[in-house]
Amino acid sequence: MSTKIVIGVLCAVISVLIILLFFSVFTWKSSVPVVRMPDAPGASTIQYTPPPRPKFAFPNKEQLANIRAMSKKTIEKVMDGIYIANNYALGNVVMVETAHGLVIVDTTENAKSARQILAEFRKITGKPVKTIIYTHGHVDHIFGTPVFKEAGTQIIATRTTVEFLKREQGWMEPFLRRSRQIQSGSFDEDYALKIPIDVRYKGFTGETLVWPTVTFDKYYTFKQDDTVFELYETGGEAPGHLIIRLPQKKLVISGDLFYASFPNLSTPMLAPRSAEDWIAGLEKILNLDPDYLAPCHGLALRGRTEIRQRIGQYRDATKYIHDETIKAINAGKTVEEAVRTIRLPDQYARLPDLREGYGRVDWAVRGIYHCYTGWYDGRGAGLNPLPAAVFSRELIQLSGGVDKVLTRAIKAQKLGEHQLAVELADLVIKANPDEKTARIIKSYSLDYLGYLNQNLNMFGFYRSAAAMERKKAGYKP
Q1: Could you tell me if 244 and 332 lie in one domain?
Q2: For the chain, how many structural domains are there in total?
Q3: Among 477, 473, 444, 450, which Cα is nearest to 462's?
Q4: Which of 23, 56, 84, 384 has its Cβ near the most Cβ atoms within 10 Å?
Q5: Could you tell me if 346 and 447 lie in one domain?
Q6: What is the pLDDT of residues 412-453, one digit of tens each?
Q7: 352 and 442 share a domain?
Q8: What is the pTM for the complete model shown?
Q9: How far is CA 234 from CA 214, 283, 284, 438, in A?
Q10: 280-317: per-residue pLDDT in tens?
Q11: Which range of residues forms the domain containing residue 419?
Q12: Which among 252, 81, 230, 97 has a CA at the least distance from the CA of 156?
């Protein structure tokens, strides 16, 4: 046997002996944390009388007049050959008339509304629909297409929009349909409070999607008859969102980058939208310097001065919230700390274009924050949290039982402290999902939270949540 082989064998033996010695000295314990599941608390024995029905938070005639105006169907003539169908559905339809045909921008969310709009357009012109453009892939902009589409109609969108639609109308469709229903306030309708002013969105009824036939990245231009169309991919409201410029008419069709509310940068149940892209899209509109702006929600804007002022303010307010959120992240603040401290300055908050009727500043802060960070805040407790039932049962036991927690929830409800009432009731539900009284208490405070705000999305979310709690309790109001 050679010397090298002998040395190799000896080294291997020594290594094994060292490993055995190491394990004989050090003992390894399980790294799995100890989790003890306390017993579920018993059912409550308290008597509960629901509070009076809440009233809508519309304190003046002006706001009611705005609601009525928003529901009035109109065909707005922006200029010769450019028309906007307003309030037939959630989204607008823009018609551009060229020498021998029509370009339709967005098609609404259902065939019924699309037929009404097309009937009105046909009073203006009988020209064929040669082109349809999708500004983006949200359902309120694309599902009326079968009504407008004719033989040979081309349908244009960005490639990113096509990929977005493959996800939204493919493997994620069941969740997205459910989340939109919850957002609209239409979930478990039989268990929700009836409302005197129906502000729910019910337009999308599951029509067939017509896929784009022409796709592009970043920029695309075409000429229909004597009219030039320039399409710019911006992102913002949705991946692949585009805006359209008609240079000869000094018009920009802005899609959903501008409407009369603080922008909906983050819908709570969906992935946050890119504030960076939204700001860049608004910058692009300003750089194109239009004399007319046709949004896909709301009425047209006219005049370079007004457009520059209103789009500029919209951009500046959005950028302010984005930049302040980045500062909070870099300062080590948690998302809750950022939400509590970041507000629009008065110069923006008082503007009608930036009221929180659709989007909300606090939701935007959460969305921006989580666009740039992970789910862990670095502070330990949230890295591997206890199951909700464990912590809830411990707290209820420390509090003296379910009846004491729910008695405090009822008192909070009577005092108008509805968020506290909801969270206390929810503590009991997490500890014992079969607890019906807690669900009923929670549902009524959810009603109040919905009715006492002036944000359409928030109203819908609360209305659906209240209905879900009542359904689980087997209780109809």
Answers
A1: yes
A2: 2
A3: 450
A4: 84
A5: no
A6: 999 999 999 999 999 999 999 999 999 999 999 999 999 998
A7: no
A8: 0.88
A9: 17, 10, 8, 47
A10: 999 999 999 999 999 999 999 999 999 999 999 999 99
A11: 388-473
A12: 230
